[in-house]
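ok so for the tutorial part 2 we go from a plain amino acid sequence to predicted structure tokens. step 1 is just haveing the sequence, like this:
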Amino acid sequence: KLLYEKEIARLDQLNIVGEMAAVIGHEIRNPMTTVRGFLQMLSGKEDCAKYKDYYGIMIEELDRANSIVAEFLSLTKDRIVDLKDHNLNAILEA
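step 2 — the prediction. this is what the tokens look like for a chain of 94 residues:
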């Protein structure tokens, strides 16, 4: 029973860490989206044409960082846990 309680406590801690990671990931993505939008806007202006290649590189790097954050967020999504009681003796004898 003590082992079960410890496992429940550990899963609760992992859940909290996952929730924090999701919040942090979303908070990182919000300003990145804003910066990306302004870079797209600037790259379309004629008086900024000489920097267009730089804007493209910056947008690519923002997209790469966003992809990393998205992958990280996919790891924090709720997982369905299907806990069942099992007879360990039956498992070991099988």
